[in-house]
Each structure stands twice: as C-alpha cells, then as structure tokens.
Amino acid sequence: MSIRSGPDAWGSLAKLFHWSIATLVIGNLSLGLWMVDLDASAQKMRSYGLHKSIGISVLGLMLLRLLWRALDQRPPAPPGMSPLARRVSRVLHGGFYVLLLALPLSGWLYNSAANFPLRWFGLVNLPRLSAADPVLKQLAQSAHEWLAFLVIAAVLLHASAALKHHLIDRDQVLRRMLPSYRARHRAQPGDSP
Predict the structure, then answer these.
(1) Which entry of 97, 105, 115, 164 is 20 to 30 Å from 138 by CA?
(2) What's the gap between Cα 98 and its chain centre?
(3) Taking all residues of the chain, what is their mean pLDDT, rounded to a whole number?
(4) What is the pTM (predicted TM-score) of this model?
(5) How far is CA 118 from CA 24, 126, 146, 158, in A?
(6) Which residues pair with residue 111 across a beta bridge?
(7) Quick one: which of 25, 19, 157 has its CA closest to 103?
(8) Model pLDDT for residues 9-32, shown as the tens digit of each residue
(9) For 106-123, what is the mean pLDDT?
(10) Selection from 165, 172, 180, 183 nearest residue 4 by Cα
C-alpha cells in the first residue's frame, strides 16, 4: 500500500492519522466524561494527567495531519455526488478539523489558567498559554466542555455519513479509508509490468 493517497483510496499515512486520531479522540472523550465524577484521589489525578497527555497528542497529530493533507492528494468524491453534497462534506470536514484543534487547545488554556503544570506523559513540560487567571479558567473550562460535546456530535455525524455512503449509496467512500482496503492498481503510462 502506498504512503500517498491516490485516485481510488487514501494512502497509508492518511489512514494512520485518521484512525489514530479517531481512537485517541473517542478514548479521551470517554475518559473525560468518566473522570469528572471521580472523588478526589490519586486515581483522579492520574486520569487527568492521562487525559491531558492524550489531548496534547491529538493536537500534535492533528497538526501533522493538516501538514500531510496539504502535501498529499485526496481521492475524488464518488461519481454522482452532487456539488452541494461535496461542498457540505468539505465544510463539515473543515469544521471537524477546527474542533479537533480547538478542543485540546481549550484544555491546555484551562490547565494554564488554573495554574497547573502540564507534563506530556510525564516526559516533557509544556509551556503555559496564560498566567493564572480565575476568569479565564472558567471561560476555558466552559469552552472545553462545549467543544467536547460538539466533537461528540461531529463524530456521530461523521460515522453516520460514512455508514450512509456504505449502506445506502453503496460507494467506496468508507472502504477506501479502511486500513485493510487496497485500491485496484490501474496501469499508468510509464508503469513497468
């Protein structure tokens, strides 16, 4: 499988970014919803540390994904997809990317304004985005919570759209992002036998 995307499928690097980020986001949203109800304990502190580290990982992977997306081609929309549906798809994907950057950034800002240190998996100290500020802390916390619920909605919408393409439209949109999918190679001028 090619590292680069082609006309029939996403490349292995795009798939790696997609599924790694999806796994981390879904896991971290679940962890976030679970940990807020924990009583004050060492387990709660470890959970928060893990949640923050995963969030920073998502931020880093999203930045790398956007860089790769600027360098890589994307498979075309399936035949028969209306221009309006293509525009809606682009807008929703763009919004999803913005949310997946804004969510970890709001958490980092919340952490900074709350005057907590931020250590990525206990290995790297990250700089504060602000000085301690109770008003900013409250705003960032609210933003982080709202963004989390918007990301949950976006994940559900994204998964529903993928299933619609697969089950109703019966096109290759879902299949070409699956790790096991290999596009049929079409001979190109200059290919050797």
Answers:
(1) 97
(2) 9
(3) 90
(4) 0.88
(5) 18, 6, 22, 31
(6) none
(7) 25
(8) 899 999 999 999 999 999 999 999
(9) 96
(10) 183
